[in-house]
């Protein structure tokens, strides 16, 4: 793998050896090998819990599939944040990408599709775990790092989940789904929970973003992506070919190593509710009415009955949780947000 030409203009540090990488990260060479874990000792059933770098939590999706949250322990997280701030954030993302990018949001993801004749929404399946360690190591080589350095950087940013990560007494799932998840997460992959994973996923998808943006342009459509959510929209010309277009998108994604969650593909024409990432985009980006009304009811009950009566999920920081939801509405629809803020300010908090 040769460095891409654009890499010469990126302000990333020059690291020419494993020793230099250890020094840049502020650790010893032995610690570097241990954290990079190129032999996948994390996956070894005989490795003691105290020696592992991640904590695990398995969750069941509405579709029945399983998502594994892999949270790095403090020392590894410090190294990953150093790589994120010192290398990954120095590389410009594709213009169509709006997830995990400073200055962009769900709103900027949805704005290009507001008021369009046809909106096509597609979803990538197992976005993070489908990106393997070899792909991450190849990415670091294209940034200009020698192979030994790129391999170690890729090792620090990826993980292979051990068998006992799935010992969740509350996990009630189909055994076939559980087997599929164990196989998927057993290979070194981007862990969902590591601070470096969103930026690396965006960079690994750069070529597919270029291809899909070009494909959309040829069909007279707009394209944006927010993490694993893909959106396309256009007018009458796009509406006449949207079914065939979605097949071309799926083919491009398969060629690039990604997989479409076909059950979540939606073609939404004008006259029905067009929604992307929880926002309605028929005229302009707006929060869904049911979500607004539900939040308004919770806030009103907090005023009448006290906030403890509404904290049914036992959020440890319920006030911050509610304020975050109000702030989100304010960022999408300032008018509705102002009404919610007025109710929120009337709540009597005991702490």
Care to describe what's here?
This protein is α+β, with helices and mostly antiparallel strands and 351 residues long. The strands form three sheets. The protein has a four-stranded antiparallel beta sheet. Strands 7-8-9 form a three-stranded antiparallel beta sheet. The relative contact order is 0.14.
- Series of secondary-structure elements, N-terminal to C-terminal: HHEEHHEHHHHHEEHEEEEHHH
Stretches where pLDDT falls below 50 for ≥5 residues? none
Overall, the morphology is globular
Specify the biggest β-sheet: 4 strands, antiparallel
The radius of gyration is 22 Å
- β-strand amount: 5-15%
What is the topology, as strand order, of the major beta sheet?
Answer: 4-5-3-6
Distance between the termini: 57 Å
Tell me the number of helical segments per DSSP (H or I, 4 or more residues long): 13
Seen as an oligomer or otherwise, the chain set is: single chain
Mean pLDDT value: 93
Judged by helices, strands and strand pairing, the structural class is: alpha+beta
Instruction: Tell how many strands the DSSP assignment holds.
Output: 9
Helix content estimate: 40-55%
Task: Please outline what is shown here.
The chain is of the alpha+beta class.
């Amino acid at each position: 793998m040769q460095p891409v030409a654009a890499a010469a203009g990126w302000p990333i540090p020059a690291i020419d050896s494993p020793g230099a990488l250890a020094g840049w990260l502020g650790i010893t060479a032995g610690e570097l090998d241990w954290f990079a874990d190129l032999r996948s000792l994390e996956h070894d059933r005989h490795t003691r819990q105290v020696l592992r770098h991640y904590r695990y939590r398995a969750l069941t999706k509405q579709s029945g599939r399983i998502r594994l949250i892999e949270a790095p322990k403090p020392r590894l997280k410090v190294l990953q944040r150093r790589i994120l701030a010192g290398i990954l954030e120095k590389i410009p993302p594709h213009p169509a990408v709006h997830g995990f990018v400073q200055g962009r949001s769900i709103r900027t993801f949805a704005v290009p599709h507001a008021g369009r004749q046809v909106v096509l929404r597609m979803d990538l399946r197992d976005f993070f775990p489908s990106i393997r360690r070899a792909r991450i190591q190849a990415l670091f080589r294209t940034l200009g790092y020698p192979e030994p350095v790129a391999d170690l950087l890729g090792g620090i940013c990826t993980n292979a989940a051990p068998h006992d990560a799935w010992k969740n007494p509350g996990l009630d799932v189909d055994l076939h789904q559980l087997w599929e998840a164990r196989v998927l997460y057993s290979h070194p992959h981007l862990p969902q929970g590591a601070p470096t994973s969103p930026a690396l996923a965006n960079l690994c998808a750069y070529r597919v973003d270029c291809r899909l943006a070009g494909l959309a342009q040829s069909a007279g459509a707009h394209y944006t992506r927010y993490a694993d959510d893909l959106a396309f929209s256009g007018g009458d010309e796009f509406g006449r070919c949207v079914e065939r277009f979605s097949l071309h998108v799926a083919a491009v994604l398969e060629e690039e190593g990604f997989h479409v969650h076909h059950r979540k593909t939606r073609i939404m024409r004008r006259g029905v509710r067009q929604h992307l990432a929880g926002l309605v985009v028929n005229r302009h980006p707006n929060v869904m009415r049911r979500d607004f009304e539900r939040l308004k009811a919770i806030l009103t009950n907090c005023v009448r009955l006290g906030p403890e009566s509404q904290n049914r999920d036992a959020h440890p920081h319920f006030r911050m949780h509610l304020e975050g939801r109000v702030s989100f509405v304010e960022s999408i629809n300032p008018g509705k947000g102002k009404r919610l803020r007025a109710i929120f300010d009337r709540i009597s908090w005991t702490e």
